[in-house]
Queue: 4 jobs
Job 1
Amino acid sequence: MRLIAFLISLALTGIVVGALGRLALPGPDPMGIGQTILVGLGGAFLGGVITSLIAGRNAWSFLVAVACATGIVYLIRRSRGGTLTDPGAYPGRRR
């Protein structure tokens, strides 16, 4: 039962951090909920590592996690050929 609760808390953390990371950049981001969760979990992991290396504990890790998730979303945009405000080419979008 603890494993299920842990997985649910991971998904909730991922969706919150990922959604805030997507909101930080202007323009549409064509990602599903699964991709948003993965972006949020990646941002939370990187934010936790960075804050624990700098501060020795997890001070301000939520804000750093959102910043890292925003960076991941930006890298996804750049891989599609987009810019800071333009999401680039994705399936279903005509250029």
Job 2
Amino acid sequence: MLRRRFAVLLTVLLAIAGVSGVLYAQLETGDRGILPIDSSGTLEVTGIHVDVGGADAQSARYAGWRIAQRLGFRALYAKMHNVPISQAPNLPDPTLDDIVSSISVEREQIGPNRYIADLGILFDRARAAQFLGVEGGEIQRSEPMLLIPVIVTGGTATSVELRNAWQRAWAQFRTSQSPIDYVRVSGMGVDPMLINAAQTQRPGRGWWRNIIDLYGAADILVAEVQLQRLYPGGPARARFIGRHGPDNEVVGGFTLTAANGDIAAMMAEGVRRMDELFSNALAAGRLVRDTSLNQPPPPVLPEVPVEKPVAPVSQFNSYQVQVTGSNVNFYNFAMAHLRTLPGVQSATPQQINPGGTSYILVSYRGDIAQLAAALSGRGWIVDFSGTVVRMRASSDKPPALPPPPVQPQPATAPPSQPTTNKVGTE
């Protein structure tokens, strides 16, 4: 019994160690990771074939490179302007030497006095722009597309988990002239955990949103190749399929063969053809972003009623009082009456005319009829209209001021009675 429990425990520990080892190997193995080539500052033309002779091998090679520069510029001009190569201009060799950034050798054969090669010409974008007739050499591009290269060989589908010829071909592809704005992954860090062949089959939009947001993309392109070899190192056949979007919609496909077993060359041609396939689909309006990749709108929160602040209501009304009198006493007594009138907050002179009509601004708690009645009670002759009160006296003298209110006297205690001590006698 004890041995059986020990065996079960040992089996569980080995299983845990095995899973941990697989995860560690997937993240830490050195057999993965290919950095994409940065081609943002160059324009490239590939597949320039030259076959020239010369006095010696070096002269033949130099002449071949000269011819490749001329043919490369004309081919680039024709491609960017969509015209036949016969309509492309010729530039002198000193000018070409100045705008050519480098020459890449795809294949070459050097003889004693002959040079045969397939070359690629890289032009400096800024310097060549003025001769190409395109400002900055820029072209209209799509929104950022996350590219996932998938290779199926030997019944196993992989992406960037391990280095492979298909990933290397995409990493070496110069995307500066493509209308597709590719977002290529290197296969380092967490790339194998996020970008893999299994992810292309998952329809979950939430996970896709997280991935494209992490890599700064807006849509997904899947470049799949199904590779079949007749025998190791022998002829090979590959079926290329381009897919788009989170639902793996097929854009198109084609088939290539490598009779001599040159897998790298076949993959490079497959990348070029696949880019052309995606570019044509973009021009036809087929690479439309799935609206389900958009972030869902935030939940609608219930509207909280906002109570508008109530403006303070003034309890006092402003009226203009016109005082008519023959001397300054009328004005002074009128001001004294107004300032001592119950309900009056303030009485401010506006215009003083002792021998005529003076104007006073009065702030009063109440309406104009109440103000007029209060002044009439003081002995003034009053009439009013609108917000104007006119007051005058019935004689040559203004009404007298009412006496001040009688202040109540404080209550006093009654005088205390003196106490007498009676002394009894016996």
Job 3
Amino acid sequence: MLQAKIPQITRHDYQEMPEGPPYFQVIEGELIMAPSPDTFHQDIVANLCHLFRQYLDKKPVGIIALAPLDVFFSYVNVYQPDVIFVSNARRSILTKRGVEGAPDLVVEVLSPGTARYDRGSKRKIYARTGVKELWIVDPETKSLQAYELTKNAETPAATHGPDSIFKSSLLPGLRIRAQAVFKSSLQK
């Protein structure tokens, strides 16, 4: 039986779409839409942003940005990572339209609908396109896996639990308490 091959969605196709919401990503040529993240997911993103901004106010070594912001990795891979860091040395990849190339650091906070992409195909594309460090944050287990993608894209360099203090080799002197990352606006 003959099967018709569905054409891949390209960066050009994506850029012709109306602005969201809803928000989409192009993962290996497939258009993916996910529901809005839950409150705890958004708390984690806000907490990380706050911690990064405090650090960058003291040591302005780059910029931090949050989703939704298009990051163009290739012709068939356009993502909206939850948090990105771009060093001053690579600031030229920032454009009015989004980010043209791999940020230095990407943070993905897992959601039920997108976790398989974050842990799978997106992680591989991040490694292949030059992202140096990837943090995968799991709200359910309150843990963070830190990958040093230039060294090993398959195995995390470290896994941090809810009581850990962790750091990034890209941001000297930054120390983050996991408890600060997992604070929730719904806790009393």
Job 4
Amino acid sequence: MSLETAPGEAIPVVAFGRLTLFFTVIGVLIARTIGRRARHPRSTFIRTTLVLTALSVVPDVLLSTDAATKMTLVLTHLVAAAIVIPALSSRLAGQRGR
């Protein structure tokens, strides 16, 4: 099964898992960096990742494909973010030095 983004071009379903895992690792690295440098790591991380999540859906919306495919791609970003962001932010202190 795959999502067709253009005639003859498709995103394989397995790519979703791989990319989600890859960007979760990137999120862990961002959390570690923010945790070490920010005055309020948790809120800084949440704001940063919400902006990055919003930016990540821009290419999905700009694809020249049908609305159902666009919505599926956007929803996969939002579901992944809804799982990963709280899990990582819960490990950060509210303020540095705690």
